[in-house]
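>> received
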Amino acid sequence: MADQLVFGYGSLAVGVAGRPARLEGHRRVWGVAMDNRISIPGYKAYRRREDGSRPPVYVAFLDVVEDPDAATDGVLLAVDAGALRALDARERNYERIEVSAAVAGAPGRVWTYRGSAAGRARLQLGRKRGSAVVQLEYLRTVRGTFAALGIEDGADPGALPVVDLERVELAPAA
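>> returned
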């Protein structure tokens, strides 16, 4: 295995070959969001499947938070420097942190992505306004991956409404 790894606990665990692992001292939560009202070239947006409209919502994603009494199951993914740079760009609602000491038997340096202050603030604002949602396809995909890996779900959206939104890739800046 590579000497650098990423601990995936949500969408980073989807469709990849990794080995099961546990991140001690952290629990999985719905912790970050993107503001669907804002268009960022090269990023994404969401529209309603039934009518194609772009709702003014905050789309929530999974996060991990420190909790000394918890552990989060996920997968370790081998990465090189190029893959880390690509993940850093993809995970714009997160910051990469080292968690090597929290993964028992880690065969190298382990990173994970924790919600950024801005990403977490967007979800808090969306909750306050009553416009934070979970995308149905994201929830189904993550739950399916968890089931295939034998991971206890940990993706209950609680009070967040689950909405059938289609992800749309936005064109990069010209």
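>> The mean pLDDT is 92.
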